Amino acid sequence: MKVRKRLFVKGIVQGVGFRPFVYRLASQFALGGYVLNDTRGVEIAIEGELAQVNAFTHELLHNPPPLARITGVEEEYLAPRQEGEFAIRESRARASRSALVSPDMATCDDCLRELFDPEDHRHRYPFINCTNCGPRYTIITDIPYDRPQTTMRKFTMCAACQREYDDPTDRRFHAQPNACWQCGPGLALLDERGKPIIGVDPINFTVKMLKEGKVAALKGLGGFHLAVDATNETAVAQLRKRKLRIGKPFAIMANDLERVREFCEVSADEEAVLRSPERPIVLLRKCELSPLVPSIAPGNGYLGVMLPYTPIHHLILREGNFSALVMTSGNVSEEPIARTNYEAREKLAGIADCFLLHDRDIYLRNDDSVVRASSTGEAVIRRSRGYAPRPVFISNPKSISVLAVGPELKNTICLTRGDNAFLSQHVGDLQGLETYRFFLKTIAQMTKLLEVTPEAIACDEHPDYLSSRYAREQSRLPVIAVQHHHAHVVSVLAERGRTGPVIGVVLDGTGFGEDGAIWGGEFLIADLEGYQRVGHLAYVRQPGGDRAAQEPWRMAVAYLYAAFGDECTEKARWFFDRLPEPQQRLILEMLHTGAASPYTSSMGRLFDGVSALLGLCLTNTFEAEAPMALEAIIDEEEQVSYPVEIRPDDNGMLLAHPGSIVKNVVRNIETGLAPSRISARFHNTIAHLIVQMCVRLRQKTGIESVALSGGVFQNNFLARLVPELLAGANFEVLEHTLVPANDGGVALGQAAVALARLAANKKR
Ligand code: ZN
Ligand code: ZN
Ligand code: FE
Fold first, then answer.
1. 88 - beta bridge partners?
2. Residue 136 C-alpha to ligand 2 middle, in angstroms?
3. Tens digit of pLDDT for each residue in 623-659?
4. How far is the CA of 89 from the centre of ligand 3 (A)?
């Protein structure tokens, strides 16, 4: 029986080779009809035998091109028109305007084969790409997504490239960055003083420098990397010294999985993420015996590993036959990564011994993404290259557009358009002027690419965050301030398509509390619109405010003081002996009077304090160093946990008291229990504390769903144990999978809260 069917496909279906794919598929099943790009997606009509039409539809939905993301399909049957031929038709007006922009994707297998094929005319061409791979988001300057609106505009395609570009059956049909040796971008090499090095093969020369233990600055997709040979101790040490990066782990890049297995354990899930076209950095457990130098990630059980994702990476790693290269962001300490050739020369002078540059400009900066395997598949720690600007699908029945400007640290922004929430790439810590400029550019670029005019702007309740200030300066727009931990809970709800109410457990370092205290060990009953704080880690003083976050020893003193009062110096003599006399006295004085010492319920600070008590980290050289050191030594055999003291205060607020935990830690240190076992006991205790709190809150409210969020859930041990224990206690557990549990996901929560409040207002 002959039938005719029209399909309307929505999602990321333009600029990803969708039409040629449909064309090939229709030919394969001997179907007539057409395919065209429409403002909202791709329209397809097919005509032929019913079985073939069904087979076509199945293939279309189940095996789309690698970069496509189908989010919805409408199907309808029409009267057959005896159409035997299949055609790619002209796009309807403004075709790609509101279509979704694809993220940047790793070199595909077909391009890789050509790259290393001596017979291919793109053999060793460092910018080979096709519709299935290559740069996208980072080279677009404006929409519609067309070559003149990308940084490829200055290169005119040669006849051969143009032919591929125009041929609907070709893998490079409408591949905007299409190029070759003849017509496309090229590499350039500079020495350490920025003087051009000519007459050498740039790849060979870079390989030679790396082999000699030199530091190379490499231009990637979203910015520069600094690279050194990961098996060369002197080279890694040199890089640390020049970059002023003392202990923070470096990420590495290895040529293939076999190499990765020489230094890390890789599960099937992890393998899939490593090889995915998004190519994030994946946190993997280190092997006992590794050919890599230990100073890459000192005192850390995990290593951040990625596979090559640009032709330049493939050429260097394969031709240099490296075990692995350290690939760290090309920046000075906390600044954003260098993006332009000029920035690289300016900022990385004195760090890099050579610069491998090229003339395909990066328009928008985009850091490497970081993920780890989790019980739910994959947990994103930094959602950036390969992921942004792919949307998260949310419920937005009133189709309201809001801009959420995110928190101050690990900032990302979020824009909503219909049922899509577009979370930006990682912006970073806004206090730096460079990062703040990047924040402004990201807002401008995303509102332009998505053609969104926000009706409202959502921000953190913290009045002094630069993002909150920015929000208030946009005088035309109503501002919706969202409490930090409420935004965390709602970011889980939004990505899971839920509305609540849930018990929200948010454990992080810092968030502005409505009572003026620093919150961070929070138990909320929350839905999209609002929340009630029903429990928290009992307050202690945070001596010196933000300084205590950099100096964990201050928190150790604060917890000892909370546990033992004035006797603490006697009770933990061995700890105070480590501290210079004037410092001890100053902090004790501050705790006594409360001067410059706000109250905090931060779970992050409790981890800091315990890490310092164990002597693992008295002062942080990078963010979260103390808790990472504490996690790294866990003895997983240890089952004991300390008793937890949970009591309601006069207002019925459930308080978990850290005092008894700290007393037990101190007692175990004094009896000489191994730090690895104390660390395990502490972690077990926190997990049990969470479950006990949730059980009591369930008794009170009847709510059985728990949403987990906050940076503390990046702790691999807790991220595994807490959901397991909660599930064992018959809770439904909601965790992050698409957006980070840390502050990188907060903008999504802010946006979803704003949408819920605006929708409720419209109803009233
Ligand atoms: Zn390709
Ligand atoms: Zn060409
Ligand atoms: Fe947070």
1. 35
2. 18
3. 899 999 999 999 999 999 999 999 999 999 999 999 9
4. 49
User: Tokens at residue 635, please?
Assistant: 């003895």
Ligand 3: centre distance to CA 75 (Å)? 43
Global confidence as pTM: 0.93
- 83 Cα–ligand 1 center, Å: 33
Beta bridge partners of 326: 228, 252
Strands across the sheet with 325-329, in order?
A: 187-191, 354-358, 216-219, 224-229, 325-329, 251-253, 302-306, 281-285, 370-374, 377-382
| Closest ligand to the CA of 749 | 3
Q: What are 436-464's pLDDT values in tens digits? A: 999 999 999 999 998 899 999 999 999 99
Cα-only R_g, the chain = 27
Residue 21, classed as helix, strand or coil, is helix
CA of 224 to the centre of ligand 2 (A): 26
Strands in 649-697 per DSSP E: 654-657
Say how many Å lie between the CA of residue 175 and the centre of ligand 1. Answer: 9
Q: Is the distance from CB of 540 to CB of 568 less than 8 angstroms?
A: no
**pLDDT tens profile 188-220:** 999 999 999 999 999 999 999 999 999 999 999
Question: How far is residue 542's CA from residue 658's CA, in Å, rounded to a whole number?
Answer: 14
Ligand 1 mean position, distance from CA 128 (Å): 7
Using the structure block, give the residue that is written with the tokens 């009170």. 700
Secondary structure class of 74 (helix, strand, coil): strand
How many C-beta neighbours within 10 Å does residue 568 have? 23
Beta bridge partners of 480: 458
Measured in Å, residue 408 CA sits from the centre of ligand 3 at 10
CA atoms of 567 and 570, how far apart (whole Å): 5
Q: 203 CA to middle of ligand 2, Å?
A: 20
Q: How many angstroms is it from 486 CA to the middle of ligand 3?
A: 10
Which ligand is located closest to the Cα atom of residue 122?
2
**118 CB-near residues (< 8 Å, 6+ apart):** none
The C-alpha atoms of residue 318 and residue 281 are separated, in whole angstroms, by 19
Cα of 132 vs centre of ligand 1, distance in Å, is: 5
Question: Tokens 């050289």 correspond to what residue?
Answer: 621
- Integer Cα distance of 356 and 340 in angstroms: 12
Considering every ligand atom shown, identify the ligand nearest to the alpha carbon of residue 105 and give its number: 1
Whether the per-residue pLDDT at 34 is higher than 80: the answer is yes
Measure 552 CA to ligand 3 centroid, in angstroms: 18
**Residue-wise pLDDT tens digits, 15-31:** 788 888 999 899 999 99
Ligand nearest to the CA of 175: 1
Ion ligand 2: protein residues whose beta carbon lies under 5 Å: 158, 161, 180, 182-183
